[in-house]
Amino acid sequence: MNDSGDRTRAALAYGGLAAALFAALAMALALGAVRLSPAEALAALFSGAEAEPSMAAVIVRLRFARACLAAAVGASLAASGAVFQGLFRNPLADPYVIGSSGGAAFGAVLAIALGSGAGALGFSRIGLAAFAGGLGSTLVVYLVAGATRLRSDASSLLLAGTALGSLFSALVSIVLALKDKDLHQAWFWLLGGFSGRGLPELAAAAPAMLAGFIAALASARSLDLLSVGDEEATSLGMRPVLTRFIVGGFAALSVSAAVALSGAIGFVGLVSPHLARRLVGPRHRRLIPAAALSGAILLVVADTVARTVFAPVEMPVGAMTALIGAPFFIYKIARRGLEETR
Amino acid sequence: MIPALLEARGLCAGYGERVVVGSASFSVSPGTLLVVLGPNGCGKTTILKTCIGLIPALSGEALLGGNAVAGMKPRARARLAAWVPQIAEAAWSYRARDIVAQGRYAIRGAFAPFDEADEAAIETALDAMDARTLADRRFSSLSGGEARRVMIARALAQETPLLVLDEPAAHLDPGRQMELMELLASLARSGKAVAVSVHDVNAARRFADLALLVGRDGASVFGTPDDILTQEHLEDAYDTNFIHGDHATYGKFVLPVSRKQRKAD
Amino acid sequence: MKRTLALVMALAAGLGAAMTATAAPAGSPLSFKDGRDVMITLPAKAQRIVSLSPELTEILYAAGAGDRVVGNTTYCNYPAAALSVTKVGGFSAKTISVEAIVALKPDLVIGNLSAHGQLAAQFERAGLRFAALPSTDFASVYATLELAGRIAGDEATANAVVGSMKDRLATIKAKTASVPADRRPIVFWETWDEPLMSAGPNTFTGQIIEAAGGRNCFADSTADWPVVSFEAVLARNPDYIMAADSHGEALTPERLARRSGWASLKAVKANRVVFLDGDIVSRAGPRFVEAAELMAKVLYPELFR
């Protein structure tokens, strides 16, 4: 019986991931546009709350907030990516597969075009518009898929998601053409990043992201069953369509909150589940936490690089994740021909 | 008389507008092995899937444990009937053991953690199918026959009174085919109700307690093998000329000779 | 007596000749080189002009050619008369409708060299006379104003405007000359908040900050609209935070209070957050000097009462 060996392997993997996350967070605190010596940084970290914090303290706290944001968004996108890959039995599914990023982008661009007004519920106006757009577009995808039920519920959802994604892309282009003076603001928002967002924004998004994560964990066994196909899963006693609706809905909620915080950052949600599968295997009870850890690490590192490499100018985080994620993905594909998934 | 576990009444199976099997009536009780026969494409798989609610019936009804299948929730159906499809593919690299563990969903549900009873059921099922050595291998790397053993193990782990299998003997070597049929027969003897579609008429006659013969036109006849597997019924159903024989040790058998000549094609 | 009369007549003739020399008669051709170094020849002063930029529109009106503008863009909002002129497009080249321009039968289309230069081939094919004028720095604004006076409006008016602008800027320079470079106030110009975006030194805004006697917080940026790290803003601790009034809602005291770490900035503590009319601070047009003056007044209240 290999189970104990299996459990040891999993424990090692989790330990390794946790250590890597810790290292990434430490790096995120130490590096940035402003040079801080390790001594300064350490002192600032433990300096406690004073009336007039030193510049180093403010900077370290800022970096800490930023690292928290990156870790939360990374974990959220990765867990949702794992969920969507499981729901659709598709190794190329990412968190935006049922259209939430298109709607979020449209909401955000519309808000940018209408000016920087006040927000609500702790979100900025753009964040709120992105959140509403993301949820709204997911809802439309579900309605369209339900109305046009194809061979399988999964196919109709994916197709509706793709179609709506294209529709929103077009709408975004139209808004940008009409209000083309705001192009660079919109462009940077669309590329994704954490500039200008801090702990208050994270607090606003946290409930949705947490709800999504808990739902993802709870759906572990259902996702395992879905891997053999809708019909077999039904014969085993589950309801694929209902599961896809509920679990997908929670995942979309989580993704919309993440996008509201940071724009649609790509690759994290696609690559992290694959990385996690290599480390802990395909069973979702292990996969989802491992993917979340991997996503957090990836995004913290990407954000650190983005704000350090050409300081004081910040690069878009989405470009960094692609730079890190794409070669890794290509290497994986070349080496094992996606054998992992069969 | 033991009440039937699975009962079909005038069950009409098909897809949308297309009727595949028209008005089939049959039943399976615990301790019985029902064999479903017929030429390719006649609807063996369709009628079995319809019986356990995987496909909606076009008309008529199917009853599981006395209740209409149509109105039952998937989990309730899964407590009564375990389905073994012909091919299974897992999207991810699960081990055979993980696949067998899926059978426990009907009992445990989506959230309750597995306990010793579940682990024991999984081990027992693996043993019954002689699949211990396969347990930690990747399911996708198993041969056809090995994979099928794992899937039957999953059905056993589901601990249902009824087992429904779709052409489990397909592509198996003759010896393995017999082995499988013997296994199914012994499961029936131990008290399960088993419904299985097969292609081999002789195996059917040898092991079945009851037979459902589905013809190309969707009509079906149901009864004991002796009643059903007659010259007339077989020639009609398979559109083939058979030689009927009787071997001292083997018993009755049929051998296909040639396709029946069609008058107009 | 005859000699005096002859002298007077000669003078008069000389004056007359001189006058006609300076004011080109309505019928003579005008040539000039545009920003692409292409020689453009007009048979006479332009009568029907389409302007593709808000700044060029303002320049035309300031040079006395306002009544000859037959087409402009949706962003051309100054002076008020510009609002009712036929619109041919938006801000960037992609949104310009060549058809709409052709329908107006202009004798000259003027656009921004960097934004509309790419349309030159299209205009040529459509038979339109196109001049792409640069607007990168103050000198180019003066040059364009003078050119506008020469080819479309009134030269005297245009030259007067240029002269006044140069004078006013020189005044600011003179008054702030005594302030050493490292004592000049640092200005952080916030173009946008999410992401945090500033203005580089080569943008008009960046140049105005320098002209007003301030120092651009991101004078070392190579990009025009850099997304910057708040850490860098903190490290440079600007004296003033400035923004266009259209971006004002993002910089209210309540919103600033919600931005983590911003309370440490001296500009925030002293509430030195200033808004300027976005149009005058980013347009390479005749009003940029106003922006410089307003900014200088804020930065050096004692020097500019």
Description of the structure:
The complex is a heterotrimer of chains A (342), B (265) and C (305). With 342 residues, chain A is an all-alpha fold. Chain A has helices at 3-30, 38-45, 55-87, 100-113, 125-147, 153-178, 183-191, 199-218, 220-226, 230-235, 240-262, 268-280, 284-308, 317-336. Chain A has 14 helices and no strands. Chain A starts with a helix and ends in a 6-residue tail after the last helix. With 265 residues, chain B is an alpha/beta fold. Chain B has 10 helices and 12 strands. The longest helix of chain B is centred in the last third of the chain and has 16 residues, at 174-189. Chain C is 41% helix and 13% strand. Chain C has helices spanning 2-22, 54-62, 98-103, 113-116, 120-125, 138-151, 155-176, 204-211, 230-236, 253-258, 266-269, 278-282, 288-299, and strands at residues 30-33, 39-42, 49-51, 69-72, 86-87, 108-112, 130-133, 186-189, 215-216, 240-244, 273-276. In chain C, helix 6 (138-151) packs antiparallel against helix 7 and helix 7 packs parallel to helix 13. Chains in contact: A-B, A-C.
Mean pLDDT of chain C: 88
The major sheet of chain C is characterized as: 5 strands, parallel
Number of strands of chain A: 0
Outline of chain C? globular
Instruction: Count the DSSP helices of chain A.
Output: 14
The succession of helices and strands of chain A, N to C, reads: HHHHHHHHHHHHHH
Chain-averaged pLDDT of chain A: 86
Secondary structure tally, helices of chain C? 13
* Alpha carbon gap, first and last residue of chain A: 23 Å
- How many beta strands in the DSSP annotation of chain C? 11
Radius of gyration of chain A: 20 Å
Biggest pleated-sheet summary of chain A: none
As an assembly, this protein is: heterotrimer
Range of helix content of chain C = 40-55%
Q: Identify the biggest protein-protein contact and residues per side.
A: A-C, 42 and 39 residues
Overall structural class of chain C, as computed from helix and strand content, comes to alpha/beta
- Please indicate the percent range of residues of chain A in DSSP E strands (runs of 2 or more): under 5%
Q: From N to C, what is the helix and strand string of chain C? A: HEEEHEEHEHHEHHEHEHEHHEHH
Keywords:
heterotrimer; A: 342 residues; mainly alpha; 75% helix; C: 305 residues; alpha/beta; five-stranded parallel β-sheet; four-stranded parallel β-sheet; 11 strands; 41% helix; 13% strand; globular
